[in-house]
Amino acid sequence: MMRFRTVLFDLDGTLIDSGAIILASMRHAAEVVLGRAIPESELMAAVGGPGLVEQMSALDFARTEELVRAYREHNEPLHAGLQCCPGVLEVLATLKREGRRLGIVTAKRRATVQLAFDVVPMEHLFDVVVGADDTERHKPHPEPLLTALERLNSPSAEAAYVGDSPFDVRAARSAGVHAIAVTWGSIHPEERLALEQPDALVHTTEELVAALS
């Protein structure tokens, strides 16, 4: 009997190897708009959480709009060289063949998700995509996950959420789904993920498949 009929995924650092371009664009925005360098740990601390606007307002609330604009102007062209995290496409294809329903729940806007889909051939594998435009509240609030489950008509008990950030683990727990944290995105330290006590902490796609079995 299949334990998790529905598997939801975060996007950045989980499915796509985007940590480097996120960091580069965060640095660019801070330097261009604020004229200063900000430590990497501070820039990346909120990635995967409530979204870009909130991340930028934390850097300088009064200049949030400028920071967001500078980030997007720098970041969007970088998607042309985007790649999938190693082994992920094969895992997605396997899960799909097994008859599972797959979804993406991300803090990205749908337009930015499409930039990734245009480069990485995975869009056809997903039954639902919930982005920042789809809910009023964002991770770590459970609303994005619950929205995806509602659209799939899937009970929480039959679902797992796979992500690479503390916000993913918290959202999964709040939504009542199995929380699987992956370390390969390198956006958040493994130690920070472990502190959230996910149901599984995996380092490879082979371990992910085992955790979903």
Would you kindly provide a written description of the structure presented here, covering whatever features stand out?
By secondary structure, this protein is of the alpha/beta class. The chain has two domains: 6-17 and 82-212, HAD superfamily/HAD-like (Rossmann fold), CATH 3.40.50; 19-81. Helices cover 45% and strands 12% of the residues. It is built from ten helices and six strands; from the N terminus they run βαααααβαβαβαβαβα. It has helices spanning 19-34, 40-44, 52-59, 64-78, 88-97, 110-117, 143-152, 166-175, 190-195, 205-212, and strands at 6-9, 101-105, 128-130, 159-163, 178-182, 200-202. It has a six-stranded parallel sheet with strand order 3-2-1-4-5-6, sandwiched between helices. Helix 6 links the parallel strand 2 and strand 3. Helix 1 runs antiparallel to helix 4 (64-78) and helix 3 packs across helix 4. The chain is globular. The model has no long low-confidence stretch (mean pLDDT 95).
